[in-house]
Amino acid sequence: MNQNIRNIAIIAHVDHGKTTLVDKLLQDGGVYRANQTVQVRAMDSMDLEKEKGITIKAKNTSVHWGDKIINILDTPGHADFGGEVERAMRMVDGVLLLVDAYDGPQAQTRFVLRKALALGLKVVIVINKIDRENADPVKMYDKVLELLMELNATEEQFDAPVVYGSGRDGYMMYKLGQAKTNMTPLFQTIIDHVPPPFAKPNDPFHMLVSNIDWSDYVGRIAVGKILGGSVKVGDPVFVLRHAEGGKKVRAKVTKIFEFTGLGQREVDEAHAGNIVGISGFEDVDIGDTLDIREDAHPLPFTQIDPPTLEMQFCVNDGPLVGQEGKLVTSRQIRERLMRELKTNVSIYIDDADRAGVFNVKARGSMQVAVLVETMRREGYELLVSRPTVIEKVIDGVRNEPYETVWIEVPDECIGSIMQNLANRKGQLTNMEKLSHSTMVEATITTRGLIGLEIDVINASSGRGVTSHLFKEYGPYAGEVLTRMTGVICATEAGETTTYALLMVQERGKLFIGPGEQVYEGMIVGENPRNEDISCNAVREKALTNFRSQGSGVATGLIPAAKMSLERAIEYIASDELLEVTPKNLRLRKRILNSGERQKAKKSGK
């Protein structure tokens, strides 16, 4: 064992302060010079992470504390990115369980802690945000202990050390009421209670690839913890391919990277127990084994929880195809999806029966929305369908996935939330009165969960918080009503006019404004009744001798309701698609022609 190394992952529910805590650990660990600007949420390096304020990809960093090196993995808190958390835990020997002093353990807290306990990892409890209004750190610590008991933690795991503090303000303490100085209590607790990495320095070199990085100079970089021996630049190694039954491919180590602060540094040699990146492979994937021995066997790879949702990615066949994106062909989309498979082990992609259509299976609509948003920023155009659940037949009975959902809303909103859950066939299991809100716990099908978060936000004026966790497969629940409204479809192609939209506005809520390109079958608004209607959104006002074309129509138009990508994916019905381009999101019918749609409806297709 390498006594000078500690490998830890930070796990928590979304928005409990993981990335902010890492900022302070980096700062106190000497990553920044005295005159250097300190980055905020430095580990959230992706543009999407900065915009959404969430962590999407698990990332490595390291800090030096005295003569010790602490390798830190910052993990996502959103349930859809649980695959990132599961992979990260294979590289570490302990976890910092971060819990908000007001919210306490939440859905994702339970999920990630269960994984950590199953792997036998040591736990350090961090009660964060104790400076928050109405925070109750003592009560939340008791709730963590209750959760540990519920998840059958060992006696050693149950006796986990605890520190209290504020990651944002940069202090931790062993007991409440102590001086608020710096992060030393947390650093010292990590050194004292997280064991050095389990590794065999006298064995030949071997390593399990737990992550993939990319460099424009050296290509793919295999990231993982060295489980035995040491490796030098120039050493010959074998790649044992996980996806090909352990097939051996000969390679040569060209560069070795250690993680330090916010970047990497090249080293000539790396030893057992350290988390490193190694390059020199034409092709290497997550789950592969690197070994210096030709007769070696592949290391076991953790099975990732299976996906529960499926969506279709299709080639854009709309009349505006190719006007805003450069990458539009079936081959280009397929190559991009296959590339995603290389680094994202929690999604599955296969070709559908129809040409130009790909089935993408994932854990949740947020995970797919991140992939779609990334692709549109890279210049892709495509169509995306509404998510559908992946069903199973168990003992001859049709089964579908069920989830436990927790909804925290102000007391005055509880009635509308209960009605919404009833419409979605949710079964109430618990209700708890908090200091200024109510926590509702219910069991609901994954189908019923689609779009629920947006409904909660709308019903509570943005004050509601929703979290969910996969529970089990159960009997099919029957028809679930998730959208109570119809849509308004355009009948003509062209540029929308204020005159036409004023008349469309009388029929319902607008999704588009004046001066936008529309086509037949494109959805331009929402009908409050549960039926679809058609309108001409490009009609121009006839000219007369007495008025100009624009007079009298410049006022009275309500601004269009623009949807985010996640909201649009959850909004569309089964007979609708979302057209995604680098510049626009357009809702449309699968069958654009009105007459063809009517025929398909009558024939029951």
Q: Your description of this structure?
A:
- This protein is α+β, with helices and mostly antiparallel strands.
- It folds into 4 domains: 189 residues, P-loop containing nucleotide triphosphate hydrolases (Rossmann fold); 86 residues, Beta Barrel (Elongation Factor Tu (Ef-tu), domain 3); 84 residues, 2-Layer Sandwich (Alpha-Beta Plaits), CATH 3.30.70; 109 residues, OB fold (Dihydrolipoamide Acetyltransferase, E2P) (Beta Barrel).
- It is built from 15 helices and 36 strands.
- Strands 8, 9, 10, 12, 13, 14, 15, 17 and 18 form a 9-stranded antiparallel β-sheet that branches. Strands 2-3-1-4-5-6-7 form a 7-stranded mixed β-sheet, with helices on both faces. Strands 19, 20, 21, 22, 23, 35 and 36 form a 7-stranded antiparallel β-sheet that branches.
- Strand 35 and strand 36 form a beta hairpin.
- Helix 9 packs across helix 14.
CATH-defined fold name of the largest domain = Rossmann fold
User: With helices defined by DSSP (H or I, 4 residues minimum), what is the helix count?
Assistant: 15
Please state the CA-atom Rg, rounded to the nearest Å: 27 Å
| Helical residues, percent | 10-25%
Q: Strand count, sense and closure of the main sheet?
A: 9 strands, antiparallel
* Mean pLDDT over the residues: 84
CATH architecture field of the largest domain: 3-Layer(aba) Sandwich
Distance between the termini: 63 Å
**How many extended strands?**
36
Unreliable residue stretches: 31-46, 49-53
Sum up the overall morphology in one term. Answer: globular
CATH superfamily grouping of the largest domain: P-loop containing nucleotide triphosphate hydrolases
